[in-house]
Design a protein that fits this description.
The chain has 380 residues and is α/β, with parallel strands linked by helices. It has three domains: 14-80, Multidrug-efflux Transporter Regulator, Chain: A, Domain 2, CATH 1.10.1660; 87-144, no CATH class; 147-379, Rossmann fold. The protein has helices spanning 16-23, 27-35, 54-68, 73-80, 87-120, 127-132, 136-142, 145-149, 154-164, 194-198, 237-247, 268-273, 277-280, 287-294, 325-329, 332-337, 339-355, 357-361, and strands at residues 14-15, 43-44, 50-52, 169-173, 186-190, 207-208, 222-228, 248-256, 297-300, 303-304, 370-371, 375-379. Helix 3 (54-68) packs parallel to helix 5. The radius of gyration is 24 Å and the shape is globular.
Length: 380
């Protein structure tokens, strides 16, 4: 048995000292995390000392990783305490953040090299050029995986904003980074993820850290509550929808229809390469059930062939995009199906694109400007 484990325990446990040694942190740090409830091991050794289970170690790994990426303790607590995020989702998120940091560093090195080259040639470097490597243009150029692919699609936005009608006060539930928030209304955003809140651009609507199922607002506080491509992330979608109905006089929700028999065959990606998608939405409420919960009617939302928002179905006429890792990372589906299914789907799609089989199977898509792939707008 490994050093630091309890003899006779059902599963291995590690002492505080052993964990500190493995993680490269001090015992004092671990005690502090215990005191503030961030990582609180409940198991005791035979001598009465606290010990870490495998689950405790996993949580600590996430805490330390986010800390080393620069997150504050409260932000870390929000991240690791998110009930909608499992270990695999944290790994994908951490990977994306690390790649973003690497891109930031690479871009800064490139800017420094340019300045060094200019100075070596005796060229004058302007203050603007000196600050460019730290400024907005650098970060606009490199971005992050999510903000690089998930943005407002104008044609879908028009349909959503038309549904808002003459509402002046808007609550955006599950707001993410702020896509589809109307600029001409008084918007309040709700987003439980600290990572997503941190990616909202400067000047965005004020954002409250809360979950859809428990909105911290009085009854009928807003003209309308909206939710865009987020309901499938909620722990209890029906409860969240009813909360939206409680706090607003009207409700507008962009969601997905799984009522139609064989719905997963509407999209070639789920039909031919990712059958696991059906299991991802196995417990998702029916469209009829969601509509009934808020008294809504449903409108189809066609997806343009050149959709600017990198949602899961966006590239239905641009299949090569699904081979790009940064594109898939902005789609929660891939995290839900797991790496094995993802790698198999990507490999099979790549083979079919190379052989021409994909083009043969989907020749009917070539002339379409938009396609109904199950997106629905619920309007109540």
């Amino acid at each position: 048995m490994a050093s630091g484990c309890i003899v006779g325990a059902v599963e291995d446990h590690w002492t505080v000292g052993r964990v500190a040694e493995l993680a490269g942190v001090s015992v004092r740090t671990l005690h502090h995390y215990d005191e503030i409830g961030l990582v609180r091991p409940l198991t005791r050794t035979a001598a009465g000392y606290r010990a870490y289970s495998a689950g405790d170690v996993e949580r600590l790994r996430e805490v330390l990783a986010y800390r080393r990426l620069g997150f504050g303790l409260q932000e870390v607590a929000d991240l690791v305490g998110d009930p909608s995020t499992d270990a695999v989702a944290h790994l994908h998120r951490l990977r994306g953040l690390l790649l973003e940091q690497r891109d930031h560093a690479d871009a800064m090195v490139a800017a420094i090299d340019r300045e060094l080259e200019a100075r070596a040639k005796g060229l004058k470097v302007t203050p603007e050029e000196q600050l460019e490597m730290l400024g907005a243009r650098l970060y606009d150029a490199i971005g992050s995986a999510y903000t690089a692919t998930r943005r407002t699609e104008p044609r879908i936005a028009t349909q959503i904003w038309d549904a808002l009608g003459d509402a002046q006060t808007v609550l955006n539930v599950g707001a993410g980074t702020g896509s589809y928030e109307p600029a001409d209304r008084n918007v309040t955003a709700v987003e439980p993820s600290a990572v997503m809140r941190g990616q909202r651009p400067a000047g965005s609507a004020p954002c409250v850290a809360a979950a859809a199922e428990s909105l911290p607002f009085e009854d009928q506080s807003f003209d309308v509550a909206m939710a865009v491509s987020t309901v499938h992330h909620w722990g209890d979608p029906i409860a969240g929808l009813r909360e939206m109905r409680r706090v607003a006089r009207r409700v507008v929700v962009l969601t997905f229809d799984t009522d139609e028999p064989g719905w997963q065959d509407r999209f070639w990606l789920t039909r031919d390469y990712l059958p696991e998608f059906a299991a991802v939405l196995a417990d998702f409420p029916s469209l009829a059930g969601m509509a009934d919960a808020i008294g809504a009617r449903a409108e189809p939302v066609p997806i343009p062939w050149d959709c600017a928002d990198g949602l899961f179905e966006a590239y239905w006429r641009r299949p090569g995009a699904y081979l790009e890792d940064h594109v898939r990372r902005a789609m929660s589906v891939w995290t839900r199906v797991g790496p094995e299914a993802e790698q198999r789907a990507v490999r099979s799609l790549s083979d079919d694109l190379d052989s021409g089989r994909w083009a043969e199977r989907n020749s009917d898509l070539a002339g379409l400007d938009a396609k109904d792939l199950g997106l629905r707008l619920l309007i109540a």
